[in-house]
Design goal:
Layout (H helix, E strand, L loop, with lengths): L2 H18 L3 H5 L21 E14 L17 E15 L4 E12 L27 E12 L4 E3 L10 E3 L2 E9 L21 H4 L14 E9 L3 E8 L18 E12 L2 E15 L1 H9 L12 E18 L2 E10 L13 E10 L9 E10 L2 H8 L17 E13 L2 E11 L10 E11 L1
Antiparallel strand pairs: 1-2, 1-18, 2-3, 3-4, 4-7, 5-6, 7-8, 8-9, 9-10, 10-11, 11-12, 12-13, 13-14, 14-15, 15-16, 16-17, 17-18
């Protein structure tokens, strides 16, 4: 580990300790929460044929000035700044029959993020929509039909929650979901690092940064998912629509020329251990970095412009590994992934290879059973063609400092989430980012954050 990266990790561990705060005696004197207290504002029936719930998530983040000898059109601003985002969601479901249900939710994403969500591959707030011109008007985020086909008579108990009515489901089953959804609701899930409302908020910690999953600007697509579940393993596959342009709001409905193929194998070989292996292939109207570089160097383009060199049918493929392990109050997780780096980053973020490790600690350790504290370290990188494109002045949909002295973008995030009452939670967090936008000439920057989350 380099000295600079060691300093980043040390800073994160220090911040994590500061977030936990207090002394062992002080923690021991904190009264334990009522284990029967509901974690929602309103109770939810365990057996009704309908579901209605909601969430509100408000995130404030800010940073001070940091070293920046220059900046470009898509740089993280080096001046002091802060921003607040807010997302509310209303979830509804109806059970049509024992094996068929329908789900939908309406969502509003308002406010914004620091630097309008530009300048970082691992942006600090997953709730932020990257196109502020879309506004905060409510929209249909998800609408799916869910069908379950049992295989055999054996059943297993599961938790009733949005998108899953059953408290008892077939142990061996095939599930089909079709409609509007987020692929991140289905693939690359992780109980420690997937929930931006109660856990981490950084894009490349909550998701595999190298998984360029099909989505519009808000993170949704239309897809069909087929999944087989057994007690020790599951396998799922999906076909989904791609956006018409990188980070675009419109989807391409011509699946003969543009689509996303996704497959994931999930293994549960022992209690507390889950391993997921992911593969994906996106076909879309993509630009190629080397074409944009060649046009610039030959004098055809005044600056490298990947949008001028798109072609239908180009393929971006990638793979990921996702592991989680829990023992007692401690949960650990890790992700790694890579994609081919010749075609442009298209739907999620500008990452060609990624790795993250981290964990969290249950607050029952200090008699706060519904609290949780976590810390994670992520490191992301670019392909040679992608970094050359940015070095020569090219701009992606997130990055573009005008030039680039390349270094991996290293991020540490630590948080503490406190349960206030029923479905009310408050969090404090800190993120330390070295080489923002993969640029060793800029940063590091420390981003502090506060979060309020309500579950209804």
């Amino acid at each position: 580990m380099s000295r600079r990266r060691a300093h980043v990790v040390a800073a994160a561990l220090f911040a994590f300790g500061a977030i936990l705060g207090g002394t062992p005696n002080a923690l021991a004197q904190t009264p334990a929460p009522d284990p029967e207290a509901p974690l929602t504002m309103a109770p939810h029936s365990p057996d009704a044929s309908w579901w209605l719930s909601g969430q509100l998530n408000v995130v404030w983040q800010g940073h001070g000035t940091f070293r920046s000898p220059y900046d470009g059109p898509n740089s993280l601003r080096s001046i002091s700044e802060h921003a607040t985002s807010s997302v509310w969601t209303i979830d509804g479901g109806v059970r049509v029959s024992k094996r068929v249900d329908f789900w939908c939710d309406v969502e509003s994403a308002g406010g914004g993020g620091i630097s309008q969500a530009l300048g970082l591959a691992g942006f600090t707030n997953l709730d932020v929509v990257r196109n502020p011109s879309l506004g905060a008007a409510p929209y249909l985020a998800r609408a799916t039909v869910h069908v379950t086909f049992p295989i055999g008579d054996e059943t297993t108990t599961v938790e009733r929650r949005p998108w899953s009515f059953g408290t008892e489901v077939p142990a061996h089953r095939v599930e089909i979901r079709a409609g509007k959804m987020s692929l991140a609701d289905v693939f690359d899930l992780n109980s420690v690092g997937s929930d931006s409302h109660l856990q981490f908020t950084n894009w490349v910690i909550d998701n595999n940064g190298a998984y360029d999953y099909a989505a519009d600007t808000r993170g949704y697509t239309y897809a069909a998912v087929v999944e087989f579940d057994a007690p020790r393993w599951s396998v799922r596959a999906a076909e989904a629509l791609m956006p018409t342009v990188a980070n675009g709001i419109d989807l391409d409905w011509d699946i003969a020329r543009a689509r996303a193929d996704n497959v994931e194998l999930e293994l549960r070989p022992a209690a507390g251990l889950v391993v997921r292996v992911l593969g994906y292939r996106n076909r879309a109207n993509m630009g190629r970095y080397e074409d944009a570089i060649h046009a610039f160097e030959s004098g055809a383009d005044p600056v490298p412009d990947i949008t001028a060199h798109r072609a239908q049918g180009r393929i971006k493929s990638g793979a990921g590994l996702n592991v989680e392990y829990s023992t007692g109050p401690v949960r650990l997780f890790g992700r790694t992934g890579a994609n081919e780096g010749q075609n442009e980053s298209f739907a999620y973020t500008e990452v060609n290879n990624a790795a993250v490790v981290g964990g969290d600690l249950d607050g029952a350790t200090w008699r706060r059973g519904s609290d949780r504290a976590g810390v994670a370290f992520a490191s992301d990188g670019l392909s040679a063609a992608h970094r050359d494109y940015l070095r020569l002045g090219g701009v992606g949909f997130l990055l573009g400092d005008g030039t680039l002295t390349y270094g991996r973008e290293d991020i540490v995030e630590a948080y503490y989430t406190a349960h206030l009452w029923r479905g009310a939670f408050a969090s404090a967090q800190v993120q330390h980012i070295a080489n923002p936008g993969y640029n060793r000439d800029r940063g590091p920057v420390t981003v502090a954050g506060l979060r309020l989350h309500l579950d209804f």
